[in-house]
Design a protein that fits this description.
The chain has eleven helices and seven strands. The protein is of the alpha/beta class.
Length: 265
C-alpha cells in the first residue's frame, strides 16, 4: 500500500499544470531576486520539496549552479520537473527521498489508529551533501497536514496531532537541512499565512508587504500549526542573514504570504 504521506502529496502535485506556471510567474521572479544574491556561480545546490517546481525559478537556478539536486517525496512529480528542465537545456539530478525518514508516516498511521505516537529519531542525511546552498521549498506545512486531512480524522484530532508533533518533526528536518550545508547557506521558504474565503487574518497581505517590520504582524496572524521553519533554524544554531517576503497567488481568491529566511549553517 502506498504510504499515506506520499499519496496525499502526490494527489496535490497532480493538480499542478500550465495555469500554475503562468499564474506564479511573479512568485518565481520574487524568489530569484533573493536567490541570485545567495547562490554563487558554480555552487552545489539542493532544492528540497521540489515537486512540480512551479513556484521556484529552477531554470535560472540550474544555469547558475554547478550542480542542482531536486529532492522530493513524489517520484512522478520529480520526473516531470526534471524532464521539463532538460527541454530547456538544464540538467538536474532528481532524488526521491522522504526527508522525515518515515517518521511523518508513522505519526499519521499512529494517529489514524489512535495509538501513542512513537519517538522521533535523529535527523537523517538529506540528499547527497555537502551542499553550498540548501533550499527548503514550502514543504514544512505539508509534512503532516495533507495526509492527516485526507485520513478523515476530525479537525480537532488533526490539530491535536499537529500541535503535539508537528514542530518537533519540522525541527528534525531543518536540523538535517543545516547539516547538509556545512559552512554554507540554508534558505527556508515558507507559506506562513493564507487568505481565502473563510480564512480571515487580522490584517491584509498588503499591510505585511508594505511594512518595514513585518515579523510582529506575522506573529499575530493565523499560521499553520507545527510548521515554523524560522524557529527550527534558531534551534539548529543557524545565523539568520536576511528575510524576504512576497505574495504567492495560489489560486483564484487564495493568496499566501511567503517568508524566505536565509541563514548560514
Amino acid at each position: 500500500m502506498k504510504p499515506r504521506t506520499l499519496a496525499a502529496n502526490a494527489r496535490r502535485n497532480a493538480n499542478g499544470g500550465v495555469r500554475r506556471m503562468w499564474r506564479w510567474r511573479a512568485t518565481r521572479a520574487a524568489a530569484w531576486a533573493l536567490l541570485e544574491r545567495h547562490v554563487e556561480p558554480g555552487a552545489t545546490v539542493a532544492v528540497v520539496g521540489a515537486g512540480n517546481g512551479h513556484d521556484l525559478p529552477l531554470r535560472r537556478l540550474g544555469r547558475r549552479a554547478g550542480r542542482l539536486d531536486l529532492i522530493d517525496l513524489d517520484p512522478i512529480a520529480l520526473r516531470g520537473t526534471g524532464r521539463r528542465l532538460r527541454l530547456t537545456g538544464v540538467r538536474a539530478t532528481t532524488i526521491t527521498q522522504d526527508v522525515t525518514g518515515g517518521v511523518a508516516e508513522l505519526i499519521v498511521r499512529d494517529a489514524v489508529a489512535q495509538r501513542p505516537v512513537r519517538a522521533l529519531p535523529a535527523p537523517q542525511t538529506i540528499g547527497a551533501p555537502p551542499y553550498d546552498v540548501v533550499i527548503a521549498d514550502q514543504f514544512f506545512s505539508q509534512l503532516l497536514y495533507p495526509a492527516l486531512s485526507d485520513s478523515r480524522l476530525p479537525p480537532k484530532a488533526v490539530n491535536t496531532v499537529l500541535r503535539a508533533h508537528g514542530q518537533g518533526l519540522t525541527n528534525a528536518v531543518v536540523a538535517g537541512l543545516v547539516a547538509a550545508a556545512p559552512g554554507g547557506v540554508v534558505i527556508c521558504i515558507e507559506d506562513v499565512l493564507g487568505w481565502w474565503p473563510g480564512r480571515d487574518q487580522p490584517f491584509a497581505i498588503e499591510e505585511v508587504l508594505a511594512s518595514d517590520t513585518p515579523m510582529p504582524l506575522i506573529e499575530r496572524g493565523k499560521s499553520a500549526r507545527g510548521a515554523n521553519g524560522r524557529a527550527a533554524l534558531a534551534l539548529a544554531g543557524a545565523e539568520v542573514v536576511e528575510h524576504a517576503f512576497w505574495r504567492w497567488p495560489f489560486a483564484g481568491g487564495t493568496d499566501y504570504l511567503v517568508c524566505a529566511t536565509v541563514a548560514r549553517a
